[in-house]
Write a structure and sequence with these properties.
single chain, 5 helices, 7 strands, about 35% helix, about 20% strand, binds 5-O-phosphono-beta-D-ribofuranosylamine
Length: about 200
């Protein structure tokens, strides 16, 4: 079973959903750690209440994105984590080489549209509506050094209703996320065979 960590900055809805999916056997992963970027991230207490080990690492305690990222991934390595799922994580990460291809994220739009710096939360849904899109959705992708840029693993589409409030669109997309992230993670883990992946040699 692949050992997982969740990184979160907010409510933790996606992380809790993934935890549940693992525990119900829908995702072949074993969550072992949750890292929150703020002590105020409401999701952390909920995950801890579910028995997951939680850790708060705040960006302001470090001099650089690189030092902050190093601390996050050092905690993962120490816990034997193999795959990281970003779940509402808002901090910039520098990805150590050993972790390339092993970090997933979910974004509340159909990337490559409506992603990038500043595109999070309601900003995304407002941008989708302002662009006159007829559909939106959610994207699960691998994480690289560029915001919302890595290889797309899966997408779910939802219709946009002309003239609707961004909050209404957000709810429809969020419901799609709840189905998409566990499915995409399960497929990713099933297709991942560390013993046959030459790139993985020497990785934690
Ligand atoms: C989700 O909409 C996700 O797509 C985005 O951040 C939000 C996190 O929500 N990356 P939650 O904290 O999982 O409820």
């Amino acid at each position: 079973m692949t050992r997982l960590a969740f990184f979160l900055s907010g409510t933790g809805g996606n992380a809790l959903n993934l935890l549940q999916a693992c525990r119900e056997g829908r995702v072949p992963g074993e969550p072992v750690l949750a890292i929150a970027s703020s002590a105020r991230a409401a999701g952390l207490a909920k995950l801890e209440a579910e028995g997951l080990r939680g850790l708060v690492l705040e960006r302001r305690a470090f001099d650089s994105d690189a030092a902050f990222s190093e601390a996050c991934f050092a905690a993962c390595a120490a816990a034997g984590v193999e795959v990281v799922c970003l779940a509402g994580w808002l901090k910039k990460l520098s990805i150590p080489r050993a972790w390339e291809g092993r970090i997933l994220n979910i974004h509340p739009a159909l990337l490559p549209k409506h992603g990038g710096p500043g595109m999070y939360g309601m900003h995304v849904h407002r941008a989708v509506l302002a662009a006159g899109e007829t559909e939106s959705g959610a994207t699960v992708h691998l994480v690289d050094e560029v915001y919302d840029h890595g290889r797309i693993l899966a997408q779910a589409r939802v219709p946009v209703v002309a003239g609707e409030a961004p909050e209404a669109l957000q709810q429809r997309v969020y419901a799609a996320e709840m189905a998409l992230y566990p499915e995409a993670l399960a497929a990713f883990l099933a297709g991942r065979d560390p013993d046959r992946d030459p790139d993985r040699e020497g990785r934690p």
